[in-house]
Amino acid sequence: MCALVQAGVREDRSITQPLVDPEARQTGTTIASHDEIRRVTPFPKLQVSVIAVTCLSETVAATFVYPFINERLSEMSSSPKELARLSGLLFACYAFAQFVSAYFWGTFSDRVGRKPILLACLLICAISTVGFGAGNTFLEILIFRTRHWHQLW
After folding, report:
1. Are residues 16 and 51 part of one domain?
2. Residue 152 within any structural domain of the chain
3. Domain check: are 32 and 49 in the same one?
4. 90 contact partners, CB below 8 Å, separation of at least 6
5. In this structure, are 75 and 139 located in the same domain?
6. Is 112 exposed, middle or buried (0-12, 13-18, 19+ CB in 10 A)?
7. In the prediction, which pLDDT does 85 show?
8. Is the dihedral of CA 56, 62, 66, 68 positive or negative?
9. Assigned domain for 1 exists
10. Distance (Å, rounded) from C-alpha 135 to C-alpha 47?
11. What are phi and psi of 91, to 5 degrees?
12. 150: exposed, middle or buried (C-beta count within 10 Å: 0-12, 13-18, 19+)?
């Protein structure tokens, strides 16, 4: 009967000699060699970098409106009270759209896959950002901001 093969690990996480089966000690053979134990799946740097850039672009797209939203909406409102109401509505609709559509995107990505969903969301994010910048009325800005990244279909 073969014992569970383990490798000793030092404090610095380097691998030491593999442990052997008690029966194998008598014959001098090990169950696993150093080369087999040292083979580790390499860290997927490219894939993690793409995901990091994707997360960064979503964060930038979500928060880029903060510096200029009041100036942009002041063209559409008549009073400071109206301006506060419109900007609050704009930010609330974005948060609500993310809340409502998160379940949909999660279950849809379970069926279709993560990559197509990430690519589709990035494309829709780009389109929504351009539409938000080109919008002339509050309704247009609200629609594009609500459809931003976690869109409501």
Report:
1. no
2. no
3. no
4. 65, 69, 73, 141, 142, 145
5. yes
6. exposed
7. 92
8. positive
9. no
10. 35
11. -70, -35
12. buried
Count of other CB atoms within 10 angstroms of residue 85:
13
Q: Using CA atoms, how far apart are residues 80 and 143, in angstroms rounded to an integer?
A: 22
User: Both tokens of residue 38?
Assistant: 């040292």
* Contact (CB, 8 A) for 132 and 141: yes
- Residues 76 and 55: their CA atoms lie apart, in Å, by 32
Residue 95 belongs to a domain = yes
DSSP E strand stretches across the chain: 7-9, 15-18
Q: Assign 153 a pLDDT band (cuts: 50, 70, 90).
A: very low
The angle that helices 114-134 and 138-146 make with each other, rounded to 10 degrees, is: 170
* pTM of the entire predicted model: 0.63
Question: Same structural domain for residues 118 and 58?
Answer: yes
Same-domain pairing of 58 and 17: no
pLDDT in tens, 41-86: 788 889 889 888 888 887 888 888 888 888 888 888 889 999 999 9
Quote the DSSP letter at residue 18: E
Report yes or no on 151 lying in a domain.
no
Residues 74 and 15 in one domain: no
Rounded Cα distance, 135 and 39, in Å? 55
> Helix crossing, 80-112 with 114-134: angle to 10°?
160
Domain containing 16: what range?
7-38
Domain count of the fold of the chain: 2
